[in-house]
Amino acid sequence: MRYRQDITELFSTFAQLDAGRFHKWLTDPNLERSIKKCLNETPEASNAKNFWAIYWHKHWQNQSHILAKRHLSAYLQEQCYWAAHKTVAKFAINQYSLADYFQLANAEVENILKGFKPEISSNLQAYAQIAIPTRLKDILRQRKEADSCTNWALLRKVSKKQVLASLSQAGLSPAIIAQHRLVWCCFKELYVPNQVGANSKLPEPNRQLWEDVANLYNRERLNQLSQQIPQCSANTIEQIITRTATYLRAYLYPPVDSLDALKSEDGSNITLDLPDPSSDSLIADILAQEDAQNRQNQLSQMKSVLSKALQVSNAQTQEILKLYYQQGLTQQDIIKKLQISQPTVSRRLIKARESLLAALINWSRETLNISITSNQIKDMTNLLEEWLRSNDHPI
């Protein structure tokens, strides 16, 4: 894959794949004219790709420029391609092609833009390099979960937000969405099987359950729905629940439209149904292994950050940390050994911990592009304490 260096190319060209490989860059004339116009008006930023990424991201957030998302989609083509390349190589047992994963990655650009926080880091490409592969793995997990669930298990485990989103995506009217939501709520309230093990399948709902759900729905609709919505029979309730499960599966794992779809005589796409993964358990194992490796890599990077931050501390602070954490001396023992005052020992311990924790937080913001929550700070504090007490680094 030839990397793009010119700003005009970065924000106006898209990757074309052929036979499962990168073929060439295709230029969008509208995007090319748009970015050239911007460069002429702001020549001082002619080579600042981060500047233009943030520029278009702000326009996308404010919905103030019709081409903003297209410019950003072009900008992230390389990250989408390499995320697809990595995924198809890792999940060779899966029948999706590089083109399919590339299509999925491009479809996730909207979510990537929503997750990116310019106030934390200005490097959108660095954020996308982490975020896009993560989203592709999430999609695989969702597909595995959806495939392994019966309709009844799926309907019980999803949230109301997911149900509403799936119904909306299906193009239903607000009145029909409200009806389906109420039917699902009634079903979930009454369908509570007893003594179902963690690995066993939920039993099929019986006729009495559908009658009970219909009765509950018909009572609740008077308060929750428009009076124009009619009563439903048990058969109708079962049909609505089955359709809702279908909408949920389509929402949780949308079908992949191949980039290399055939064309019919009228110009419309003819897509081929792709087979399911041949081994869900193997996919799960690979995902778990990769997650463990990613956590290990992040832990290693965090320890490296702490080591560098510690090296800039003065010698006395490092000595106090060593005595307190690695040799287990109390503050009173340190006072006697180093012949310094108690406030000095206490102050240096507090400031050293604060400085090291700040280094971890800054690294997380800049590298992972995330807002740090109180729980994450707590986790980082625990990691810091564990690292200070370990003997795998010099103090």
pLDDT < 50 runs, ≥5 residues:
195-200, 257-280
**Strand content range:** under 5%
Order of helices and strands: HEEHHHHHHHHHHHHEEHHHHH
State the distance separating the first and last CA atoms.
45 Å
SSE-based structural type: mainly alpha
Number of helices: 18
* Secondary structure: number of strands: 4
Query: Order of strands in the sheet with the most strands?
Result: 1-2
Q: For the report, how would you describe the main beta sheet?
A: 2 strands, antiparallel
Written overview of the protein:
Strands 1-2 form a two-stranded antiparallel ribbon. A two-stranded antiparallel sheet has the order 3-4. The longest helix has 32 residues. About 8% of the residues have low confidence. It is built from 18 helices and 4 strands. Helix content is 66%, strand content 4%. By secondary structure, it is mainly α. The protein is extended. Strand 1 and strand 2 form a beta hairpin. Keywords: DNA-binding, Sigma factor, Transcription, Transcription regulation. This is Sigma-70 family RNA polymerase sigma factor.
